[in-house]
């Protein structure tokens, strides 16, 4: 086993690319794991530090092969928003394979879904996990499988919870429509309400935090919150996006009723309805424990994150490139 090698399961998403960038900057070897070798080759093949491995989540032998010889496994595997029942089963298969192959550490990139409706503001890691949605229950089940393996001493596990995110090439952030519309001087289509407090993490900041967390001996056996760059609102950020683009903000807002209507034809929007509470009862996280553990956590100010994302959006409109896709709620 390579004593430092890292495997990224679900590497093709935006968080995966951010972690890969951090690993490259540290000169560390890594393995990217996904279903399509051709896709992984096009994204990571030019890096001599990258090793490409494919897996079929329905074939346990391929999961074991993807985890073989790895010390740390970072798990970011997404499923269709309407197939969340797959999350616990995929985690169970991955944990079984990791244990069988002697993987020492597993890092799960998690969400706020298991917390359910917030009882406090902000939410610390002591907040109970009482999900009231199907997606929250599936994510909690996924976490419980991993944490049980840690408690049994079979591997070390930790979870990093992210809020909503945005950044260059993230085409399914709540803010993506605003970046594209502002760059074109057009009207954005938003999911509202847009005035309640909210927070966003800038995706390029996630990679350095994940690599620091996975190397911290005290990180394991629990979960950690990573808050955004401060409490803001969709309206404030959209107005800033348009201001930096040199336009007055123009937008239309779709509420829960409109989501239901659109959902008759769009399965993703249909599944968004049960998570709409995150816009009306936002989960705002306290990440002081993470700061204490790591010493510092990189947080790009919203104004700078908007500048860089807007610059990338304009470039993509001139010369379109494949986006680093991600759903409005991180790694669902």
From TrEMBL:
GO MF entry, a single one: aldehyde dehydrogenase (NAD+) activity
Domain NAD-dependent epimerase/dehydratase intervals: 8-218
Superkingdom of origin: Bacteria
TM region(s), chain numbering: none
Gene Ontology, cellular component aspect: cytoplasm
Gene3D superfamilies reported in the protein's UniProt record: NAD(P)-binding Rossmann-like Domain
A Pfam family it matches: Epimerase
Signal peptide residues on this chain, from the entry's feature table: none
Record protein name field: NAD-dependent epimerase/dehydratase domain-containing protein
Organism: Archangium disciforme
């Amino acid at each position: 086993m390579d004593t430092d090698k890292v495997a990224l399961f679900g590497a093709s998403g935006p968080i995966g690319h951010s972690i890969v960038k951090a690993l490259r900057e540290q000169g560390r070897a890594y393995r990217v794991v996904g279903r399509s070798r051709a896709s992984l080759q096009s994204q990571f093949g030019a890096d001599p530090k990258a090793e490409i491995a494919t897996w079929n989540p329905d074939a346990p032998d391929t999961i074991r092969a993807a985890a073989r010889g790895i010390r740390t496994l970072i798990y970011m595997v997404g499923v269709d928003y309407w197939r969340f029942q797959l999350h616990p089963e995929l985690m169970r298969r991955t944990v079984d394979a990791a244990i069988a192959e002697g993987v020492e550490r597993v890092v799960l990139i998690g969400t706020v879904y298991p917390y359910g409706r917030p009882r406090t503001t902000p939410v610390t890691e002591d907040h109970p996990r009482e999900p009231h949605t199907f997606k929250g229950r599936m994510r909690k089940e996924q976490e419980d499988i991993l944490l049980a393996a840690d408690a049994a001493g079979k591997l070390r596990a930790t979870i990093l919870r992210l809020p909503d995110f945005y950044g260059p090439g993230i085409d399914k952030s709540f803010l993506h429509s605003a970046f594209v519309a502002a760059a074109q001087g057009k009207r954005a289509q938003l999911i509202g309400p847009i005035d309640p407090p909210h927070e966003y993490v800038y995706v390029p900041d996630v990679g350095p935090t994940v690599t620091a967390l996975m190397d911290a001996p005290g990180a394991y056996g629990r979960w950690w919150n990573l808050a955004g760059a401060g409490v803001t609102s969709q309206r404030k950020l959209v107005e800033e996006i348009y201001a930096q683009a040199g336009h007055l903000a123009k937008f239309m807002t779709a509420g829960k009723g409109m989501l239901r209507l659109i959902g008759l034809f769009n399965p993703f929007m249909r599944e968004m309805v049960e998570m709409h509470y995150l816009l009306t009862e936002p989960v705002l996280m306290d990440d002081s424990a993470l700061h204490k553990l790591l010493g510092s956590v990189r947080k790009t100010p919203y104004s700078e994150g908007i500048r860089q994302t807007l610059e990338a959006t304009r470039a993509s409109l001139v010369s379109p490139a494949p986006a680093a896709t991600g759903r409005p709620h991180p790694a669902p």
